[in-house]
Design brief:
Helices cover 62% and strands 8% of the residues. By secondary structure, it is mainly alpha-helical. It has a domain of 93 residues. The protein has a two-stranded antiparallel sheet. The protein starts with a strand and ends with a helix.
């Protein structure tokens, strides 16, 4: 990492961080194993500074994206090789874990079937509403009787 000069207001010159070729090579090689926050910690800069550098240097950002994609591709190739029996050694559960965490893959969820919507006729709806009204009235009357009984017991 080096400091590149930047022209500021009124002719003064400041400095800002930039990645050199060695840093970009590190990102290409080992950047796939680290998040952007972890890379910022590695370079001993803040995450905001790291994002700014990545914005200013598209080649560094492209190297990071390519490293991540190649790593995910290697997990997918290994999974295909295991499926087709080309690779027999290795921990399958670890491969599944890597696919779920690093590649953001999830197990296929069964399709949820929506129940068929029942269409009511106006008469059926009116009958259902009448039943609800009668039940509510019965429930209120029952609650009143129970409350009267408790009041009488206290006296």
């Amino acid at each position: 990492m080096y400091k590149e000069p930047v022209v500021c207001g009124k002719g003064s010159v400041g400095e800002r961080n930039a990645f050199d070729e060695a840093d970009i090579e590190f990102i290409k090689g080992d950047g796939a194993y680290l998040t952007q926050e972890e890379l910022a910690d590695y370079f001993e800069i803040s995450v905001r500074t790291f994002y700014n550098i990545m914005h200013r240097q598209p080649d560094a950002f492209a190297a990071y994206q390519k490293a991540k994609t190649l790593k995910k591709l290697s997990y997918h190739k290994l999974a295909d090789d295991k499926i087709f029996g080309l690779v027999t050694e290795g921990d399958t559960s670890l491969l599944i874990f890597q696919l779920k965490t690093r590649c953001k893959m999830a197990e296929a969820a069964p399709e949820t079937k929506l129940e068929e919507q029942v269409i009511e006729t106006p008469e059926e709806k009116a009958a259902r509403m009448e039943d609800i009204k009668l039940f509510t009235e019965w429930k209120n009357e029952r609650a009143k009787k129970l409350n009267r009984g408790k009041v009488n017991e206290k006296k």
